[in-house]
Queue: 2 jobs
Job 1
Amino acid sequence: RKEVEQDPGPFNVPEGATVAFNCTYSNSASQSFFWYRQDCRKEPKLLMSVYSSGNEDGRFTAQLNRASQYISLLIRDSKLSDSATYLCVVNKNAGNNRKLIWGLGTSLAVNP
Amino acid sequence: DGGITQSPKYLFRKEGQNVTLSCEQNLNHDAMYWYRQDPGQGLRLIYYSQIVNDFQKGDIAEGYSVSREKKESFPLTVTSAQKNPTAFYLCASSIDLGLAGRNGQFFGPGTRLTVL
């Protein structure tokens, strides 16, 4: 099983739609989780951290389910500018060597 | 404005040549990282540095070397020993290595290296 798994998509949705992505992780000891956004041929940019209690930032909501070992990202009222690849990132937390493990990303295309 | 800069944006190299990619940050971050990204693959860690004059191999360090003589700078050298150097190289930084797990990492715009 991969350490971090995402559905690659693409997810094609119309403007204004609500879309959700899930990401599963294998290491039950992982403590920190993030969603990054990456536009084509650009660097990843931190979208939001994922907290145990769930958190919201405008149209974006992130949730953590430790029992089932997955995190989710919900985007409401999709905009054309939301079209990008969304990367799930998990803190490996292996001793003192705290490395981030990156998913391959989920591609989202928001259509007019 | 604080941020991370990488240069050059595009780089072409002949086989057998070493090349150095620049990474500078003015965020006052202690930790810095180098990743490479290939089509269809996630980011893979090449080297990371927690503090000046210290650095550690990541998952794919073979054929690469780094230095960390200043807090702001973490250059990466792609040597001729790297068998598949053509890739998108990303430099990142975080407040410190431990807090990368809480606050995430922040990236420069990347360098696209093509070996001819």
Job 2
Amino acid sequence: QVQLVESGGGVVQPGRSLRLSCAASRFAFSTYDMHWVRQAPGRGLEWVAVLSNDGTKNYYADSVKGRFTISRDNSKNTLFLQMNTLGDEDTGVYYCARNSVVSTGGFDYWGQGTLVTVSS
Amino acid sequence: DIQMTQSPSTLSAAVGDRVTITCRASQTVSSWLAWYQQKPGKAPKLLIFDASSLQSEVPSSFSGRGYGTEFNLTISSVQPDDVATYHCQQYKSYPWTFGQGTKVEVK
């Protein structure tokens, strides 16, 4: 069964940085586009960023563009999200998600999420 | 950006009722639409992709319809295990966007 395990969340002060990781297993990680999606407490889902399978193409939500960087290490089956200049609005659960294999879009597998709390 | 609007925000149904959730897009997304189920404290689960295709191992009580700007998710006979928040999401163009969610309660 496909497995995605996020880590790296925690409490961080406004303006500081945090790096999230997502360890993938039981599928051919290097052949899939991968995404980060977040959810603020009690709110809906917000797509954050995507990185192509080979790491050459990426897109970001306007709310994080210039502050967040998505990257991957296909040799270690790991996806990353470097988050800089964090603000209160970045608080939430961050999920990594795999792009669907049967369609051009959608997320067919999700991790359990890692909680990021931005607070002084 | 494409805005996705779901209605209703909350619905309450009796066991066995047929329930329908609507998702409207601010511009056409063709059939590039997915539906997810999210139970409290859990990650979302893909139910429907390409507007009407049932994801593997999802019960046939779930179905999706629509094209362009208006879409529906229907649960043919709602059960207690269907208590969850349901989200629509477009993947016609980046940034991919979600609706605000519909919370389904079962009486």
